[in-house]
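Project outcomes to date are best conveyed with an example. Our students and postdoctoral researchers have been running inverse folding experiments weekly, and each run begins with a structure described purely in tokens. The record below, which covers 196 residues, was selected by the lab manager from last quarter's runs and is presented without edits.
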């Protein structure tokens, strides 16, 4: 399984570069956070009778979105780092990533335990997992508020994304020979229009 995940990661890396180059960090991080939340909720819907191939296919497809999210977050972390500080930034980013993963697992365990307590039973049952996955999905969706604050061209030097510029409004040029009354509103123009 580890070999499959590593192979999938190597295959998906070029796709990640193309996606980031086409849509930019802001759009990718924003909407991919929503997709990650949807995928987490789907994981909670698995039943004992769900065919193994359906579970495997869902996990394989669903893992694309967290992989893209990690790639984007790890890449944007170095957007404004000088070359001399890359080594220290790599250590810091790696530490933060491991802490965030550990916190996610810890929070999921606490939520799962609390769901079991609220439902009034000692052990963990199958129905306890859906609320837990939903809570974790809410965390993913809530991160959209942070990514929405990014500029449209955030880390464009890394993603090579180009933001389309809004077309300039055309400038209307009036004829120099046109009378002043032609530029005024109709009622005023009629009132001052010279008589023949």
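After processing, the design step wrote out the following sequence:
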């Amino acid at each position: 399984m580890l070999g499959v995940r590593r192979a999938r990661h190597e295959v998906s890396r070029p796709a990640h570069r193309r996606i980031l180059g086409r849509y930019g960090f802001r759009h990718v991080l924003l909407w991919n956070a929503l997709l990650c939340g949807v995928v987490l909720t789907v994981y909670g819907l698995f039943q004992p009778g769900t065919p193994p191939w359906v579970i495997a296919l869902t996990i394989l497809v669903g893992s694309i979105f967290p992989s893209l999210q990690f790639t984007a977050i790890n890449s944007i972390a170095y957007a404004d780092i000088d070359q001399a500080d890359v080594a220290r930034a790599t250590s810091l980013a790696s530490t933060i990533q491991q802490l965030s993963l550990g916190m996610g697992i810890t929070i999921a365990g606490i939520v799962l335990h609390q769901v079991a307590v609220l439902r009034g039973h000692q052990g963990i049952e199958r129905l306890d997992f859906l609320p837990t996955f939903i809570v974790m999905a809410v965390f993913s969706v809530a991160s959209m508020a942070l990514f929405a604050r990014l500029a449209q061209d955030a880390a464009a030097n890394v993603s090579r994304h180009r933001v389309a510029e809004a077309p300039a409004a055309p400038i209307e040029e009036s004829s120099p020979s046109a009378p002043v009354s032609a530029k005024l509103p109709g009622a005023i123009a009629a009132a001052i229009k010279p008589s023949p």
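The chain has eight helices and no strands. Confidence is low (pLDDT under 50) at residues 180-185. The training component of this project remains on track.
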